[in-house]
Design brief:
14 helices; five-stranded parallel β-sheet; binds phosphoric acid mono(formamide)ester; alpha/beta
Length: 323
């Protein structure tokens, strides 16, 4: 593997899940694989789980991890080609990325969308400019439109939590929120579940909240939450802002918040959320604190997902640092 930006970079999803679960059983299984290697973790936006789980994953592989909060500590970066840098940006990615490529063997990058310009966000300019100019493998720590480490974690969590001899029924349901949030987690979850092909998958959302078809194709789509929840084994709860009329909040109907009453129509479904979550807006206390919630297990599994992906990137890398 040379980069990890989406499901298209994962040649074998099931093999990644299996590798992650092997690491969960034995975290130090490949403790020298990353010896002498460094990963730079660049954050243009906040994070708790992604930052810490990727650092731990790197350490488990004997790899040094250095975090750089670009958004707070770094020079303001320019990403546009041929930019006239007379505004607020100080350093172009064309200088910054190759330097980071000399300091590190792998580069992780978190860069959220603006939610102002759909074309720019969906071109993934920022992370693609790092890929273009850094010369080393890049791993997405959540980009403008996708969150692949989260989605791999989600499939790991579903795999280890489901034991019936049939496909799991998975419902991804929109939930209310007070802010306009990216579509990344929902896009990415849909992309991974569809590519995995081992689930009966439905996405429920209010009118005007459709996602990009290139991620949802293969899933059943509905505006009726109870239809998606019917006999579901897993309910994945997530807010996203509008995609078509980009980055807006049209509906904040509290009726879309998941409650224990709504879970009665499921097969005692496990409830998932990527976190952070707004309690009693996106998800009720009773669900988050109840026996059906997988959110802590899900977040803990971020380590094993990152470790499995770093393993593939290390095996695929032939870069010698500081050369
Ligand atoms: N789920 C997730 O990416 O969490 P953080 O934003 O805390 O990294």
């Amino acid at each position: 593997m040379k980069k990890f930006l989406s499901v298209h970079d994962a040649p074998d999803i099931q093999a990644l899940i299996d590798q992650a679960l092997a690491y969960k059983k034995n975290p130090r299984l490949s403790q020298t694989l990353g010896a002498g290697k460094r990963i730079g973790l660049l954050f243009l936006n906040p994070s708790m789980r992604t930052r810490l789980s990727t650092q731990i994953a790197a350490q488990n592989l004997g790899m040094e991890a250095i975090v750089f909060n670009v958004g707070q500590d770094g020079w303001a970066l320019e990403f546009e080609e041929e930019a006239i840098m007379s505004g607020t940006t100080v350093e172009h990615v064309k200088e910054a990325a190759p330097i980071l490529g000399r300091y590190f063997d792998v580069l992780g990058i978190r860069t959220f969308p603006s939610l102002k310009n759909k074309e720019e966000d969906y071109q993934e300019l920022y992370i693609n400019q790092f890929v273009k100019y850094c010369g080393i493998p890049v791993i997405s720590l959540e980009s403008a439109t996708l969150h692949p480490l989260q989605s791999l974690t989600d499939l790991i969590t579903i795999t280890e939590s489901f034991h019936a001899e049939r496909k799991p029924k998975i419902a991804l349901t929109w939930a209310p929120h007070v802010k306009a949030l990216p579509q990344c987690v929902a896009n990415s979850f849909a992309q991974w579940v569809n590519a995995w092909g081992k689930a009966d998958f439905t996405i429920a959302y209010p009118e005007d909240y459709e996602l990009d078809e290139k991620f949802t194709a293969g899933a059943k789509l509905t505006h009726h939450q109870e239809e998606a929840l019917h006999e579901a084994d897993f309910v994945y709860v997530k807010n996203w802002s509008t995609y078509t009329d980009y980055g807006r909040i049209y509906c904040n109907d509290p009726k879309w918040m998941l409650t224990n009453k709504k879970l009665e129509g499921t097969r005692n479904a496990k409830v998932m959320h990527c976190l952070p979550v707004r309690r009693n807006v996106e998800l009720s206390d009773e669900v988050l604190d109840g026996a059906n919630s997988l959110v802590t297990q899900q977040a803990a599994n971020r380590v094993w997902a990152a470790q499995a992906v770093l393993t593939e990137l290390l095996k695929g890398a032939n870069h010698t640092p500081n050369e």
